[in-house]
Amino acid sequence: MSRFFYHTDGLILGSQPVGESSRLFQIFTERLGRVTALAAGVRELKSKLRYSLTELNLVRFSLVRGRGVWRIVCTETIQPRFDPGDFKKVEPFKTDSKKLAAAARFLNLLSRLVVDEGRRANVWREAASAYEFLMAETFSSEALANFEILASLRILETLGYCELPPLLRSLAAAMPWQLTKVGAFTPHRQTALAIIEQALYHSHL
Length: 205
Known about the structure:
- With 205 residues, this protein is of the alpha+beta class.
- The chain has two domains: 5-77, CATH 2.40.50.140; 87-203, no CATH class.
- Helices cover 40% and strands 22% of the residues.
- It has seven helices and five strands; from the N terminus they run βββββααααααα.
- It has helices at 91-95, 97-113, 121-136, 141-158, 166-172, 179-183, 189-203, and strands spanning 5-18, 22-29, 33-39, 58-65, 70-77.
- Strands 1-2-3-5-4 form a five-stranded mixed beta barrel.
- Helix 2 packs parallel to helix 4 and helix 4 crosses helix 7.
């Protein structure tokens, strides 16, 4: 019987070991929404999947539907589309502890907000563009704090968990990611934080 392969980009939200050599991944994907997928034998040294299947990675997946679970058959790590051709910027992401911590918090929020399968094209566009921007850019501490708040605010609004006042909407909603705009968000940070806290509190997340 032939198998149908789904090809989709995805953000790895988390994983857990299964058996002696496999791992079960939680992935937010472009085409399928959130899925749970098994990578058989990925913990073995000979596995070709192990290099791209690390947490905090943006990955291109080939998936096949198994009995009760998706299975990962092929992967490719995605380079950010900001500053095309200049992939040297990506490497510091793996060694920058502050950016890694920001990425982990962003994906943790995404994991709390998106809990089941089903395509969410608008949410994916927001999440993927924010993540690529984080990977590609160099941030001051203040700009990184602004980015985290803006990214969280935009995801919450896209999912309908909050409504932005006109001023914040003009600054944040559908804003192309630019470092100058992120840096200029500082005066509005406390207002945005209050909206985020209220949205999470009322959503019981």
